[in-house]
């Protein structure tokens, strides 16, 4: 069977899309969602207590946390991601992968090629926009548009389901 070829331009928009998909679908095993729930509960409880007993100077911390959480957190995170992208050595380069039953060969334009076996792939998450291929905490983003055809994308999904330690399909979510 022939190799599945994937190729795309690693732009800032692609990087932000990958980070968004990782946050929404791939990071489910991380502590981020637990922290979000705990902070949300703390804010709601603090606001409830303020309404019960009136505003106290100690309540200003809950107010500041709520303003940060609902007003600035996403914007600050996006700025952090942009700075990280701008300092990356993959910025605005062509990313190419050649995927077979045995291994994945990855190449970034102007850099040396790397290869790894499927045994090191801990999880593959299929989203509506592409695939997140995890090797531990790190991941590779394979957008749907990087595949030559829908058939190649479907073939990669089937291969991932067979070869990766864990395969999760969130394409309908």
If you had to describe this structure to a student in words, what would you say it looks like?
The protein has helices at 12-26, 32-53, 60-86, 150-163; strands at 4-10, 93-99, 103-108, 114-117, 123-126, 130-135, 138-143, 167-169. The protein has 173 residues and is of the alpha+beta class. α1 crosses α3 (60-86) and α2 runs antiparallel to α3. It starts with a strand and ends with a strand.
Indicate the topology:
Elements: E1 4-10, H1 12-26, H2 32-53, H3 60-86, E2 93-99, E3 103-108, E4 114-117, E5 123-126, E6 130-135, E7 138-143, H4 150-163, E8 167-169
Parallel strand pairs: 5-8
Antiparallel strand pairs: 1-2, 2-3, 3-4, 5-6, 6-7
Helix pairs in contact: 1-3, 2-3
- Mean pLDDT, all residues: 88
- Cα(first) to Cα(last) distance is 31 Å
How many distinct beta strands? Answer: 8
Structural class: alpha+beta
Report the β-strand fraction as a percent range: 15-25%
Brief summary of the model shown:
The chain is α+β, with helices and mostly antiparallel strands and 173 residues long. The chain has helices at residues 12-26, 32-53, 60-86, 150-163, and strands spanning 4-10, 93-99, 103-108, 114-117, 123-126, 130-135, 138-143, 167-169. It contains 4 helices and 8 strands.
Descriptive labels:
single chain, 173 residues, alpha+beta, 4-stranded mixed sheet
